[in-house]
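Input structure tokens:
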């Protein structure tokens, strides 16, 4: 690259390094303030819903410094109908709030942020900040069985997106600020700066590129400093004294990891099932959260511990003050309660429920190990602590984030060996049984596969319908040898397909067989030989078969042409496919992949949103489609006329209809889809004009 102005922008130029550092600081500050206000809002809603002597002024003065307690002790004293009515009333508020103002605020937050980064170029509507904060505070404050970490991630990310859009930054910069907001939310919520940065990079962005990781770290640190000033510097949980009594103790910790993986898989599948069930319930969408809240209240009649985020109950498990039976029951109850809350349309995170499930299942293992091997192991609370991280690792498929989060939550270094063992085992179990994490499972149901990779066998992406010859050489079964010879002379085919009078396919005669009998022409020319020469045991394919199936047939036989039959009528000849056509299609597809792969490699070298120097002042750039151009065509947008930029290629997103072909050349009437990326070329000024146009309403 030779254009030093564009390749090494001035430090304070929009989108430059110091500019992004300043934006990250501002995002971290906003994320910390949002986390503190969100905690206050939850406590205020709890006070109104469940009662208590604290007023809002008292909360600001003293209660804000403490972790919001779950309303378990207050719920125990309530009448049965109040336990059902309060969460139902919360759902009655949350459902319409989300449905009519910001539907992306529904659910646990993180998948929505991942979707925005993956398919919307980081664009999140600004109204999500207010709607998500209020809806989640009401859900949690009225007893919904959800956590506050997912909401604060989405709130922080929405603010980062708003900041990037307001400053008219490019797609890569907006995505970076979205990740900064997520990191700030996690850091401020858990007092965990390292975990916040790792979570944002590993889960939200998906990589640790330095150009994006630096602002993320800065945002995370700023959020932690502000939250510590407001809330104090202390671990989120009261952890027991911990030590590894014996090296053999790692075995029961690994066993706890297996259990954690199974619990996580049950949680993921239950959550998906609940969403599917409530989708089919014949009632208005905005009223389903009311039903979900009432069902949580029914569960809380016997087990009020399912109310709220569950941190109070987690502290009891860490202290070893809960019975085995109660903890086992709470594992099942919490899975159901959280699945119902989120599946019905409530708003809240799954991180705290994952910690809850880990503490309960680990507590059960710890109690049993302590009972049968007294003095040879740590307390049950230690197992609860380790398994908290193991369930988080298994649900998110992000063991690194889980290990660091638990370490920072507890501020206990001695826990690391056992924690690493359990997290790795639980992640393996979860991934073996469930390929999707709790975040990507929701996206997969929406047709978005973030893990999708191109099949290395190019023929699996090509189909018989793409290369079929609809005019095969057909011979009636009553044809004589002379008729066959005349057809062979005039045709360039090697296989001749014999059909009955009704048109049913009998088989084929190969050119090699005709050559073998040509010296007997005199004796055969007046005989009916088609039915005698035909090979009836020939393999056939349908239009829907991929070309890898066809190539297997060619490789395992002496023929180089195969009959294509109707999938509904296997005896009706629909066409033929030849080996040379299959090979030609394979070569074209491989060439396309090589070209696309070469471009992708060059773009990765300079980073998304950066440019590749084409010479003579022209640059190549890959830009994500934004909501402002989705659904519109090149002709409607008049991109070249308005900005001077030429759209060269369009890359389809994973899971889309274009994913099979990967890259296409757009026509004037071709409409852009959500999640696609445009490969454009133009001068540096033209590209900036194009990004401004796509980032704002036209």
């Amino acid at each position: 690259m030779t254009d030093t102005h564009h390749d090494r922008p001035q430090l304070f130029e929009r989108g430059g390094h110091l500019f992004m550092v300043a934006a990250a600081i501002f995002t971290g500050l906003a994320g910390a303030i949002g986390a503190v206000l969100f905690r206050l809002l939850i406590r205020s809603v709890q006070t109104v819903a469940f009662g208590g002597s604290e007023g809002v002024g008292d909360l600001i003065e003293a209660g804000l410094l403490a972790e919001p307690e779950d309303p378990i002790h207050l719920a125990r004293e309530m009448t049965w109908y109040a336990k059902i009515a309060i969460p139902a009333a919360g759902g009655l508020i949350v459902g319409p709030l989300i449905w009519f103002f910001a539907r992306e605020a529904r659910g646990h937050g993180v998948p929505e942020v991942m979707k925005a980064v993956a398919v919307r170029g980081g664009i999140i509507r600004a109204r999500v900040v207010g709607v998500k904060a209020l809806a989640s505070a009401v859900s949690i404050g009225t007893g919904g069985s959800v956590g506050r970490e997912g909401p604060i991630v989405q709130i922080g990310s929405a603010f980062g997106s708003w900041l990037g859009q307001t400053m008219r930054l490019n797609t890569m910069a907006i995505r970076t600020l979205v990740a900064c907001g997520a990191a700030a939310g996690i850091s401020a919520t858990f007092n965990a700066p390292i975990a916040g940065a790792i979570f944002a990079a590993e889960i939200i962005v998906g990589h640790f590129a330095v150009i994006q990781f630096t602002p993320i770290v800065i945002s995370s640190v700023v959020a932690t400093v502000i939250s510590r000033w407001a809330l104090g510097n202390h671990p989120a949980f009261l952890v027991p004294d911990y030590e590894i009594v014996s090296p053999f103790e790692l075995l029961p910790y690994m066993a706890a990891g297996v259990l954690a993986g199974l619990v996580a898989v049950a949680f993921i599948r239950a959550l998906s099932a609940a969403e599917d069930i409530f989708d089919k319930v014949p009632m208005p969408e905005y009223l389903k959260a009311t039903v979900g809240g009432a069902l949580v209240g029914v569960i809380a009649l016997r087990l009020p511990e399912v109310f709220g985020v569950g941190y109070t109950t987690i502290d009891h498990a860490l202290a070893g003050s809960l019975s085995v039976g109660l903890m086992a029951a709470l594992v099942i109850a919490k899975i159901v309660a959280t699945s119902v809350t989120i599946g019905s349309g409530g708003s809240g995170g799954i991180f705290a429920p994952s910690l809850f499930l880990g503490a309960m299942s680990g507590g059960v293992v710890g109690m049993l190990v302590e009972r049968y091997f007294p003095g040879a192991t740590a307390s049950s609370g230690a197992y609860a602590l380790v398994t908290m991280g193991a369930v988080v690792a298994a649900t998110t498929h992000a063991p690194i984030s889980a290990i660091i989060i638990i370490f920072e939550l507890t501020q206990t270094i001695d826990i690391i060996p056992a924690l690493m063992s359990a997290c790795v085992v639980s992640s393996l179990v979860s991934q073996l049984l469930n390929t999707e994490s709790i975040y990507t499972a929701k996206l997969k149901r929406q047709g978005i596969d973030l893990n999708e990779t191109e099949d290395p066998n190019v023929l699996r992406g090509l189909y018989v319908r793409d290369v079929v010859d609809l005019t095969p050489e057909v011979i009636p079964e009553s044809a004589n040898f002379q008729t066959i010879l005349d057809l062979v002379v005039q045709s360039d085919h090697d296989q001749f397909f014999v059909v009955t009078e009704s048109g049913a396919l009998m088989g084929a005669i190969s050119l090699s067989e005709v050559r073998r009998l040509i010296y007997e022409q005199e004796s055969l020319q007046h005989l009916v030989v088609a039915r005698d020469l035909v090979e009836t045991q020939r393999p056939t394919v349908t239009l829907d078969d991929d070309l890898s199936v066809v190539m297997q047939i060619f490789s395992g036989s002496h023929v180089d042409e195969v009959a294509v039959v109707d999938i509904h009528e296997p005896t009706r000849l629909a066409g033929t496919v030849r080996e040379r056509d299959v090979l030609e299609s394979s070569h074209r597809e491989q060439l396309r992949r090589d070209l696309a792969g070469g471009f992708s490699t060059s773009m990765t070298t300079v980073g998304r949103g950066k440019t590749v120097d084409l010479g003579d002042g022209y640059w190549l750039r890959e830009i994500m489609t934004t909501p402002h151009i989705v659904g519109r065509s090149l002709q409607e947008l008049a991109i070249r006329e308005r900005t001077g930029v030429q759209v060269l290629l369009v890359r389809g997103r994973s899971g889309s209809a274009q994913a099979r072909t990967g890259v296409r050349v757009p026509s004037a009437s071709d409409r852009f889809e959500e999640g696609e990326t445009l490969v454009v070329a133009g001068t540096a000024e033209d590209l900036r004009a194009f990004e401004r146009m796509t980032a704002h309403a036209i």
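Residues 1-12, 53-66, 596-610, 654-661 have pLDDT under 50 and may be disordered. Residues 17-50 form the longest helix (34 residues).
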